[in-house]
Amino acid sequence: MTVGENEILLGEGLEKIAPDALTEKVKTVRLFARTTPDQKLLIVNALKKNGEIVAMMGDGVNDAPALHQADIGIVVGEATDVAKESADLVLLDSNFSTIVKAIEEGRSMFENIRKIILYLMS
C-alpha cells in the first residue's frame, strides 16, 4: 500500500483544521500520525459523521475514549486494563496480519451462520 504525501495528516496539521473542515478532510486522508488522544477522538467522530465504519487500534489509557467511540476498538494483549475494557477485540500479539485474519474468520463465521438460518427457515 502506497500512501501519497497529501493522504497523510500529522497531529500538528490537525490542530489547524476546523472541526467542520475535518469531516471533509478525513475523506481523503489514509494515514493519521503523531496524534494526541483528543485528536484521535475527533478523527473517529469525523469518520463516523461521514457514515464510515471505524476501527481504532490503541494500547493505553489515553486511547480509551477513541476506542470506546469507534465501532470496533482493537487493543493488543500488552495494553492497559482500561484500554482492554474499552475495546471490542483484544489481540494476543501486535501483528497487523492478526487483524486481517480475525476479520476473515469473522466474515466466514457470519456467512456460515447466515446459511444455517436460511436452511432452518426453508
TrEMBL record:
InterPro entries hit by this protein: Cation_transp_ATPase_P-type, HAD-like_sf, HAD_sf, P_typ_ATPase
Topology of this chain in the membrane: Multi-pass membrane protein
One GO molecular-function entry: ATP binding
Domain of life: Bacteria
Main location: membrane
UniProt entry keywords in alphabetical sequence: Cell membrane, Membrane
Subcellular location field: Cell membrane
Protein name per its UniProtKB record: Calcium-translocating P-type ATPase, PMCA-type
Gene Ontology CC entries for this record: plasma membrane
